[in-house]
Design a protein that fits this description.
By secondary structure, the protein is mainly α. It has 21 helices and no strands. Helix 17 runs antiparallel to helix 21 and helix 19 packs across helix 20. The protein is globular and about 75 Å long. InterPro entries: MFS, MFS_dom, MFS_trans_sf, Proton-linked_MCT. Pfam families: MFS_1.
Length: 515
């Protein structure tokens, strides 16, 4: 029923096979500092994704404070979630030029600034700019490096490592829901956002922990993966092979550019040495020129890598399975976000506030979500299990729950469906693994940036759409039905495309046999 690992063009269990050339493993890959990277990513997910999953609490406060429609007010949460993910491709450019550590630290400052400025909001439109845009961009600048760094530091047990780090979303949703509820009750929502902004400064500490691997360490990791990538290329169609064959991203022109840049830097150094007898002012100017030249080289190299990944010969969009993955992402994320934003209102509509105050439904999703990510990660790392099949099964379960949720009008029924939503949505931990297996570690930052950008578009329009439907019908039922059906369309794309990929090579081989 489901595509095998060969069908989709990548292998999951052969990463341990190393080529004939002996390589001394780096102790920081799959161990040592790698676990500090997991811890850093875990804390990032708590502070960013967990906080965003708890925005239903603030959404109710904004409805009472500003007395606007549910559709308009929901745009605040949607902008924050959506922009966090939509800026992914552009954050990939920052990572290429500045590295993950610098990008994450700057993002932590922006995120905290967005929360603090939002405490002084005079209307909903003010929140669009401060919380939606400013905090959203800051969140994106921390989130993508947190995911990419885990992929760089782990060769084996990548699914488990990503699962452990992304469980921070579940922990964060549970903790931040309780924290924001307490802060809003005790201090009001404005002071609550101010305090949350101070807490968000810890994102800078998380970014400081993202110690980059040396180029030598990364090259060793690529060599370890080369054997499995060769096997992968045999099963892929021509579209995927295009990426693999051009994976070095215009190596010849890059070498020429590097040589030219080295000549420029060398000439600057020569002038600097020869000008020692000159005045101190001239020496200072030469040092500035040298620094600017080095910065220009770094920016040009980073931009060349980023540009070639999206628009060059090695464009990721030539991979048909990856394009299907993008289409799926455009519909998927809103189905997960809508319950978090609108569940408090649904509970109030069904007169279930008393039971929900004892144990909130969003907390049920968050807690089970933790176990779902870890368990699905462990299952996917088993040599006899295809990560792709686990990914598809979890998606089918989640879309079934989304379509079933409006039918449940008792607390017990809603709790059961929310628990299944939490467990099946654990497939989020598999997304970086599937992406890396499709495009390779070198293109992970840009490729995963595209995927979370598509998720961001889904998160941006999902909750306002649900609120708009409610304003018209006074019910959330149709919102869940439409979101579930669109989600099913995305899953069908994931299911069909690998079958097409498998069929094309067979047809080609038949034609060659006839010739």
């Amino acid at each position: 029923m489901y595509a095998s690992r060969e069908d989709i063009g990548y292998d999951f269990g052969d990463d341990s096979k190393v080529g004939s050339k002996p390589i001394k493993p780096n102790p920081n890959i799959d161990g040592g500092w790698a676990w500090m990277i997991v811890l850093s990513s875990f804390l990032v997910h708590i502070l960013i994704m967990g906080s965003q999953m708890a925005l239903g609490i603030l959404n109710m406060e904004w409805l009472e404070e500003f007395n606007q429609s549910r559709g308009l007010t929901a745009w605040v949460s949607s902008l924050s979630m959506g922009i966090t993910l939509i800026v992914g491709p552009f954050i990939g450019l920052f990572i290429s030029m500045c590295g993950c550590r610098t990008t994450a630290i700057i993002g932590g400052i922006l995120n905290a600034l967005g929360w603090i400025l939002s405490a002084y909001a005079s209307d909903v439109h003010y929140l669009f700019l401060t919380f939606g845009v400013t905090a959203g961009i800051g969140s994106g600048m921390v989130y993508l490096p947190a995911v990419v760094m885990v992929g760089q530091y782990f060769q084996k047990r990548r699914a488990l490592a990503q699962g452990l780090s992304t469980t921070g979303t579940g922990f964060g949703a549970f903790l931040m829901t309780a924290l924001l509820k307490y802060l809003c009750t005790e201090f009001g929502w404005r002071n609550a956002m101010f305090i949350q902004g101070a807490i968000s400064l810890n994102l800078c500490v998380c970014g400081a922990l993202m110690r980059p691997l040396s180029p030598k360490d990364l090259s060793e990791k690529y060599v370890v993966r080369s054997n499995s990538e060769e096997n992968r290329a045999k099963a892929l169609s021509h579209s995927t092979e295009t990426i693999k064959s051009n994976g070095v991203l215009s190596e010849e022109p890059e070498k020429k550019e590097e040589a030219a840049n080295e000549e420029v830097l060398g000439s600057v150094q020569h002038i600097e040495i020869g000008g020692k007898s000159s005045s101190g002012r001239s020496m200072y100017g030469l040092r500035i020129l040298k620094s600017v030249s080095q910065l220009t080289v770094t920016v040009r190299k980073g931009f060349a890598l980023w540009y070639s990944s999206y628009f060059g010969a090695a464009s990721l969009f030539t991979n048909r399975v990856f394009v299907a993955f993008i289409i799926w992402a455009l519909f998927a994320y809103s189905s997960f976000v809508i319950p978090f934003i609108h569940l408090p209102e649904i509970v109030k509509q069904y007169n279930l506030s008393r039971q929900n105050n004892v144990f909130p439904l969003t907390s049920i999703i968050a807690i089970v979500h933790i176990f779902g990510k870890v368990i699905l990660g462990i299952i996917s790392d088993l040599p006899c299990i295809s990560t792709w099949n686990v990914f598809l099964m979890a998606n089918f379960t989640l879309v079934t729950c989304i379509l079933t949720l409006p039918l449940m009008q008792t607390y017990v029924g809603l709790a059961v469906v929310c628990a299944l939503i939490g467990f099946s949505s654990g497939y989020f931990s598999l997304m970086p693994v599937v992406t890396e297996d499709l495009v390779g570690t070198k293109h992970l930052a840009n490729a995963y940036g595209i995927i979370i950008c598509a998720n961001g578009i889904s998160a941006l329009f999902g909750p306002p759409f649900a609120g708009w439907i409610y304003d018209i019908t006074q019910k959330y039922d149709f919102s869940f039905y439409v979101a579930g059906l669109l989600y099913m369309v995305g899953i069908i794309f994931l299911f069909i495309q690998p079958c097409i990929q498998k069929k094309q090579p067979r047809e080609k081989s038949t034609e060659e046999a006839q010739i």
